[in-house]
Known about the structure:
By secondary structure, the chain is mainly α. It contains 13 helices and six strands. The longest helix has 38 residues, at 267-304.
Amino acid sequence: xxxxxxxxxxxxxxxxxxxxxxxxxxxxxxxxxxxxxxxxxxxxxxxxxxxxxxxxxxxxxxxxxxxxxxxxxxxxxxxxxxxxxxxxxxxxxxxxxxxxxxxxxxxxxxxxxxxxxxxxxxxxxxxxxxxxxxxxxxxxxxxxxxxxxxxxxxxxxxxxxxxxxxxxxxxxxxxxxxxxxxxxxxxxxxxxxxxxxxxxxxxxxxxxxxxxxxxxxxxxxxxxxxxxxxxxxxxxxxxxxxxxxxxxxxxxxxxxxxxxxxxxxxxxxxxxxxxxxxxxxxxxxxxxxxxxxxxxxxxxxxxxxxxxxxxxxxxxxxxxxxxxxxxxxxxxxxxxxxxxxxxxxxxxxxxxxxxxxxxxxxxxxxxxxxxxxxxx
Length: 376
């Protein structure tokens, strides 16, 4: 133990938040990867191919795995311990701190691409799940898409250039802790102001609510059974948990003075950051997973009660169904009168959708609040 420690530092020397970092990282990594695996398995079983939203969520999961690995690497270098303990136990200080801050820097730069892929996955899934023929909803979808792309570009540039030159982000530890550097260290950081650092989070929160509102508004305008509407709203509203995590992150960024003890004081921020991304990934997977789980439950219920196969929804696509459905869909559209409010249309995947007042939901997106029974 270093002789320069104060009595207060000696008393708090054994404090550690590393178990919390490791436990949360493992839990959220499992949640993320299991959710994505089940989603992809369900998608391949139903459609036998993947879509843009599936590839986007796979990329997000890869980013999450890299982020989790970097957090665990930072933990091995002292994240979760008091900074004076990290320095005292470092045989060649501040090398462990430098490795720690390098990992945190990479994670910050990955924030934009990771969350962009999650948001794109959600938007593209909405585009596939709902047939929207109302101009204002289509415009809202495009506004969200443009906004998140601009946010991702801006936040990535911000995090890359939060210190100039970028390596000053971790090399400044020599100056902060008055350790003689092996070479000249100079630069400037704009990340020392909490409000400035919180700006990318605030702009991200705006897009989160914008994306969250789209399915809620769409579903509220559909004429569905109350149980089905509540089930769909509940599934699509899971993203609200990620929004809550982001609100907590903003509050922690603005109120918690972590600069004096950066390896210990900002652990809650680190945990909520990792939680937000993985909860968002899981929430993006839940509509498809819940829908297919309902179909499986319907088949099991029907088989136990001797129901006919016509009362269940098969998870295997019928050969030639896409072309047949497309023809039927085009015929049904041709039979619509100008004043008609309802119709059945077929999307590019051959999945029929009931269209009501210019908004439709695909028949394979079937989640209901309450008992799951086959429809006769």
